[in-house]
Design goal:
Heat Shock Protein 90, 5-stranded mixed β-sheet, 23 helices, 5 strands
Amino acid sequence: MNKKKSIIILLLFFPLLLIAQEQMESYKAFGVIPQHIPDSLYQQLEASENFDERIQLIEAIANIHIQLGNTDSIIYYGNYLKNESEYHTPDKLTNSLWLSKSYQILGKGSFQKGLYDDAMKYYLQGIEITPVSIKPNLHYKHKLGLALIYIEKGEYKKAISLLEECVNQSDNQEINAFANKYYGDIFLYKEDFLQSEEYYKKALSDFNKLKLEKAQLKVKVNLGTIAMLAKDFDTAFDYLKEVKDMALEKEYYDLHIEAVLRIGYIYKRNKQFEEAQIVLSTAYVNAMQWNQLESQKVISKSMIDLYVDLDDYKNAYNLMTQHQAVSNQIINNQKRKEVKELEIKYQTAQKENEILTLQEEQLLKESEIKRQKTIKNAFLIGFLVVLIPIIALLYMYYQKLQAQSQLNVKQEEINRQKVASLIKAQELKLVKASIEAQDEERGRIARELHDSIGGNLAAIKLQMNNLNDKADVKMAIVNQLDETYQQVREISHNLIPSKFSQNAFTTLISEYIDKLDKASDQNITFIPHPKDKINALDENLQVEVFNILQELITNTLKHAKAKNVEIHVNIHNNILQLLFEDNGIGFDREKTPTGIGLQNIKSRLEALHANINIDSTINRGTAVTIEIPINHDT
């Protein structure tokens, strides 16, 4: 976020901050970014040439970032430690120890960032290179990290199996304390609050003895959450206020934001909307000053929901724009992070070249020594000449096995692609069948117009030619005209589905979404504003918008794996604005081909002279923005 936008946001929340200072003294907005890491550590790291001192400084800086919750910095220093371990350790045992610690740090950073597959990879590698017989505590810490990933993925049986192994085979109090905490997490997710609270209190007692402050605060956040779900808001508020104050004092900014968000939820549930606004606003300003982009994104989403509850759609819409801007900034920062990683890889490659140069010089010295050796050494060389072809054959056999393995993987991928092609072919058949049905219906209407209305009009023409002031003939003509008019009305009404003429448009969409909510695990939210203008739209436009929404929702349910979907429909300056956002797996627009559903949407929008913008990033969801001119002849 640039400086100008920061000033605008501060001015926007300034009145609320004044109220916070007067009425709620414990919620404060800070004007400076807190200092996280002492400059002396960076200076020592830059000046150090000793391996042991250097690698311990890297670990110390990484652990401070873990306490602060700075995910990008955790991953950066985890990779830093990994590179130092791989290329500068004096012996194999030291290499395994520090490499295992780097995997522990990378696993924690990836997990906090939501990259669960990467975190799982690091923990599995850590388990592999850290035998329980040599480093039992580090071995079980990797297994605890793996269990936590399974909990987040909802694979509780796998998590419990790992936790039982840690508890039964380790006598380390810290390992057992975290195992109890994770058991509490499992029962919390299962909504078994009594069991969850029992395990949390065991863990809290152990963490208190071990003086692990941040772990204690994490448990208290979850105890506050249990009380909040049980609607015991006084107990929940006591837990969360303690965490909020202590986390701020100790600079655990991720826990501070988490506690403040839950306090805001309590105020919201108690319909104390002004207090909720104050709490969330101060948290948002602090997140901006501390450059906590993920926190800004979460808080802005909570404030959008708050303004929707207050029917303040104007502020909700403004914050939606800010929410999107923060999301884009996170994506840009991720790109800068990738550049930094490439720089590290480049530096690592340079170090590898230096190592290879030293190895070549060593080989030259060894060759010189060999040329000066006796006949016994010549015999040894002959033996090596025989051994090398054998090694080469073994290597070729190994390469063949590797090639066969890669071939099997490619064959599986080809089979998956064939299945996907068959599915797409079936979808095309369904589309063709729909088009044929539409053509058949148009033919039926044409025949009805020709046979019924055309015949009546022809009869009227003949009678008009023979009309000689006969009253009975005039009455017959009038009756036929009336009959023809009724047929025209029936045919025209049949062209538009009756549900659109008999029900409010927003009600139709809400009923459709309610059915999907009951039939799936997704949470779909529909927010129209203003409803009266949306319900007054032309019926033809209502049909097109409804079909577009159906296509978007169908694509999300089939492909996105999203838990939450939000649909905003607004009318502003004679423009119908549709914002469709999910928190699914996203996709790469450059690599993903346009599907049939998206092609149908674009075809409908072209007919409406509308604009569409699709914003999607891997693991960060998808946002679709559509603008349709209302006054245009559609």
